Amino acid sequence: MPGILLGELFPNFEADTTSGRIKFHDFLGDSWGILFSHPADYTPVCTTELARAAKLTDEFKKRGVKMIALSIDSVEDHKNWSKDVMAYANEAGSPLPFPIIADEKRELSVQLGMLDPDERNKAGLPLTARCVFVIGPDKKLKLSILYPATTGRNFDEILRVIDSLQLTAQKKVATPVDWKPGEKVMVVPSLPDSEATALFPNGVTTKEMPSGKKYLRYTQI
Ligand code: BEZ
Q1: Residue 17, Cβ neighbours under 10 Å: how many?
Q2: pTM of the predicted model, to two decimals?
Q3: CB of 46 closer than 6 angstroms to any ligand 1 atom
Q4: pLDDT digits (tens, 9 = 90+) for 57-110
Q5: If exposure means fewest CB atoms within 10 Å of the residue's CB, which of 37, 54, 103, 132 is most exposed?
């Protein structure tokens, strides 16, 4: 079964991109990374997504996350399509601020489980789905989200999960439903109360539950 699971080492693949040939781990260096795939160039939803990603470059940079896109078209197509993308982003003439991988043979798409069997090109070949992979500085997969070709992604949500991933990588906390940066977080269940009090100087509050079990512990970071 192709694909990659959370916690696995992300493959150190080699690929042709709009910025030349890369080896993925060298491309990432010590940074976090985000790889997002697209069904094809010159398609409407993909154009809106890449334009939004381009507009959010500073937000990804602020978080130390290197961006890279992928679709199954050629480097030349990617380069030409990027001009449309930047025009859609109201930045006509500027280069797309991140590379796009050209996975023309679909080798990487198969390896990473990215093909959507329900979406095919005119030749009947499957297109890539809208995958999001977030990779940590240890080169391990921290998050994957998979959308079908017909549903565009929400990049506010992608930034929000990166904020959660980066926070929970540093502190023994988890982020609750609909959490946004600055809101209270939850102490991880594995941390005993005695250690939680010492670790969180802003205090830990526990919500009373009908079960009497004290598992909903909040703190402010
Ligand atoms: C799009 O990007 O608009 C798209 C691509 C493939 C299938 C459906 C929509």
Answers
A1: 19
A2: 0.96
A3: yes
A4: 999 999 999 999 999 999 999 999 999 999 999 999 999 999 999 999 999 999
A5: 132
